[in-house]
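Working notes for the structural subgroup meeting. M.R. asked for a predicted model of this chain before we commit to crystallization trials. I am recording the input and output together here so anyone reviewing the notebook later can reproduce the run.

Input as submitted:
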Amino acid sequence: MSKSPRPAFRCTECGWETGKWVGRCGECQAWGSVAEAAAPVLRAVAAPVTRAAVPIGQVSVEDSKFRSSGVPELDRVLGGGLVPGAAILLAGEPGVGKSTLLLEVAAQTARYQHRTLYVTGEESASQVRLRADRTGGVHDELYLAAETDLGAVLTHIEQVRPTLLVVDSIQTIGASGIEGVPGGVTQVKEVAAALIRVAKTRNITTVIVGHVTKDGSIAGPRVLEHVVDVVLHFEGDRNSRFRMVRAMKNRFGPVDEVGCFDLSAEGITAVTDPTGLFVERHHANVPGTCVAVTMEGRRPLLAEVQALVTPTPSDKPRRTTSGLDSSRVAMVLAILQQHCGIRLHNNDVFTSTVGGARLSEPASDLAVAIAIASATTGVPAPRGVVAMGEIGLAGELRRVRDLPQRIAEAARLGFQVAIVPEEPGRRSTRQPESWVVEGMKVLDVPDIVSALRLLHFTKRDQPSARDLD
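Returned structure, recorded in token form:
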């Protein structure tokens, strides 16, 4: 006789399955969360269709056109605005400003005479009203409900019939009759499925707030990111007012765009030109500084890199970074010592960015190297110079993407000279090539030694990769 399949054991917190019972989940490490789950019996039968299939050319797109959210930077990330019937997941760390941003979006949508329903499960209605009074978000077309039950939320949707629905947050909403606590895998799946089903059938733009884990990933089952149309990540430093929204998934637009915001006590405002937040205006040339041009999505941003090099009596010098990738900074230090003759083995090196900017792009390698070399030699970089380029382990400079956009942005902000990697195959002279773009002088160099020699940070007899040919 064939034996029936043995029921599996499933974690009620993260959905991890195992063939036998254990006291501790092997995925989320929660104690006492593994319980026996009966094997489901699947019986699929034919059912009536909701709408007959038609040729794709006959499908109308009038109901799915973009509608402005009233926040230009958010429209930039979404690809043009809110799409009716779209499900948007906004995740971010606690206290980063998710509720403030969505309350502003709800208020702006209500001002355009589009009825909006804001459902909060984390705060009371009076607490949200206090924030709305502070940020100027009170409007007659903005409806507010404090609910934690899915059935009650669906009833509010039936009564209000909103154009925009905001749910803050999905981890606080629970469905009666479903096993598990609110925020568990089963509950999150059921609540998300119900909200998305209503959004699609009634053409309601739905924005769902999601929590994140301690490593920065979205909490809950991975299927939540698959079923929604757009996944946005709201990030920012607690010590800075600057905030950014990144699109991790977008079915209606690009995924390489970012939106910039300024979070204050009066609310959240869009920052259309954030470059000035990351560049310090010094009254005189200061050693240990250099301006890098990085790309945040398709937007070029200028950020100042600062370095401090001090002697140390310790056998293990300190390597401290803030806003920079520590592994790339360590690689740049090794290249400077090996190829440029800059001895750093008996010095503490501190590197940082201005304004809480985070530079993870390899194009900032050259600016980091120039800042460290300037701090070591005590020679400041010339005023009005920007640097961009990736440094290889052999000391060569590699080309970076979107170079014309970077140069144009630096020229717009008043910089006069740009140091960039040379074009592949150009080896006409032993001196750096130069030309003028957008009223800005551009110097292309083959390697890091040539770049530092150009700024008088290395000895004249220090050979470069081009000199050795």
